[in-house]
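Action item from last week, closing it out:
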Amino acid sequence: MRNTIILAILLIFLVGCSTQKDSTDTTKVTKTISGTTDLILDEQDLNQLGMTKDLDEQELQELGIASGTNCWTDKEYSNIVDSTLGQYSICAYKLGETQIIIELKKFANKEALDGSYQYDSSHYFSAEGLISENTFGDQSKFRVNNENDYGGQYNQKGIYYYHLWICKDLYLIHITSKGPDQVKENIADIGQRILSKFN
C-alpha cells in the first residue's frame, strides 16, 4: 500500500512537471516597452539595416548629442502642445552618405500624442511629397521633400529629406533623412524594425 502511494505521488509530480514544461514552451513572452530607450536600435538592428554610427562631432553637437555616443534621452521631456511630461530620445546614424535621425517621444496621454503628431507631421509640408498614409498603422505618414513645401524653394538640389511619422500606443516615432541617397525603402525598413520592438 505504501509503495502504491509513493508511486502515485511520483506520477503526479512527473505529469505536473511535463505539463508545466509544455505550457512554458508554447507561451510567447512579450516585451514590455517602458520608455523611449527600449525602442533605440541595437547593434544587431544597425548591422541588418546597413547603418553605422559614423557621424562627426559637429553633426552630433548640432543635434544636442554628446561626444562618444549617438543617442541622447530626456526623461523629463515637456510636450510643447500641453506641457505634460513625457520622455524624448534622439539618435543619429549614417546610411551611405545619408544622415538618419530617429526621434522617439513618449507622451503622458493620447491627447498630447495626437496634438504633437498633428503639429509635427503637417507643419509646413505640402501634399505633393506625400508617399503614404496609415501604411505603418493608424496616423502614420510617410513623405519626401517637395519644392511646394514651405521654404521648399531653398532646398539644396540633389538632397532628399524623407520623413516617416508613426504613432504606437503613447509613442510618436519620427524617422528622417538628409542626404543624396533615395532611401525610401530603407526608411520604411527602419520604421518596421522599431515597430517590431512592441511585439
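Closing note: The first helix runs from residue 2 to 26.
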